[in-house]
Amino acid sequence: MVVKRLKLMNFRSHEGFRVDFEPQTTKLIGRNGCGKTSILEALYEALQGKSFRAVDREILRRGAEFYRVELEYEDGRKVAVVFDGEKKEFLVEDKKTRRLPKKNKYPIVLFEPDDLNLVGSSPTSRRNYFDRVLGQLDEGYSVALNRYNKALKQRNELLKEEMTEVNDMFSWNVLLAKYGVELYEARARAIQEVNERITKTYQSIAENADEVQLEYISEVQDETDFLEKLERNFERDRILGHTSFGVHRDNFEFQFNRVKADGSASRGEVRSLVIALKFIEAEMIIRELRQKPVVLLDDVFSELDEKRQKCLVRNFQEHQIILTSVGEEEMVKVS
Q1: Cα separation of 261 and 272, whole Å?
Q2: Does domain 1-106+295-335 have CATH number 2.10.220.10?
Q3: pLDDT tens, 264-320?
Q4: Pairwise CA distance, residues 334 & 235, whole Å
């Protein structure tokens, strides 16, 4: 058991809510729209320091002036998250901070229904997925991604100004090259590691001999090449109004028996592939962070057949699992 209790005030549709979690599996059942996913979102924010769905103003209950999340661990430690309509603060060990300290974060494996569409989703969705995974594994990755995105935003804003010249871009180009290559190298290492395990893990779920691979597609090479391409593309980018080269355009593609999985793999095969990816994610977290992640399953059982449901539970049986499921009740907890 990791998480013991959660309290909410003015979080999404919840004016007030409290739930005590079971040591192994807690199932939250309720009809659509009653706020089940919001419970997982609040847990994610208290454990990781940010929502996986939205910004704070969107989370704040309509008409309320603040929201508050209180999380209690099994060992008695507590974390509170408070948003006053303008800024968010964390209260950890009687100290207020603007960000949740790294030492107070706890890893999560989050499984949403949309993840089952990962194979056929947009490149942006796949990048966001892997950025979230890698950000948990390495705080430095999150820092590099944040700095890259800030530099990208500034460069794009300059491109829209009529009097901008190529020399005006230099400082932003340097930052994009520096942090872009950091992100590229981290992604390449992670995908290599995933590929070392994914076929075997997939075969254990699907019970067949098919081969699976994840291809990382990027035009990035090194910092020098990155800078040269940004400078060479300046006129084109100014016409387009945005930066046309960089890791923000990278893609991840799934290969199924050496053929692009989107269009060749069946619905069941795709689901087995995504489940395999989640198992590998948990393994990487355990190895890198030396902690067993809390597993959050948001209404995914309804999308899986009995065989894959059992496989999911079996592989995560040593983790604390908190899952949601659709029912006719307002919201009930089942141990």
Answers
A1: 12
A2: no
A3: 888 889 999 999 999 999 999 999 999 999 999 999 988 898 999 999 989 999 999
A4: 60
- Only one residue has tokens 């006719």, namely 328
Place of tokens 């290492």: 189
pTM of the complete model: 0.91
For residue 159, which amino acid is it?
L
Residue type, 313: V
């995560």: which residue's tokens?
316
- CA-to-CA distance for 144 and 7, rounded, in angstroms? 33
Tokens standing for residue 170: 């230099």
For CA atoms 172, 174, 175, 180, the dihedral sign is positive
Question: Which element (helix H / strand E) includes 67?
Answer: strand 67-73
CA dist 65 and 61 (Å) reads 8
- Rounded (5°) CA angle 106-107-108: 125
User: What are the structure tokens assigned to 22, written together?
Assistant: 């079971």
Distance CA 49, CA 205 (A): 33
> Which residue ranges make up each domain of the chain?
1-106+295-335, 113-292
> CATH assignment of 113-292?
1.20.1050.90
Q: Identify the band that residue 110 occupies on the pLDDT scale cut at 50, 70 and 90.
A: very high
Structure tokens at 292: 């067993």
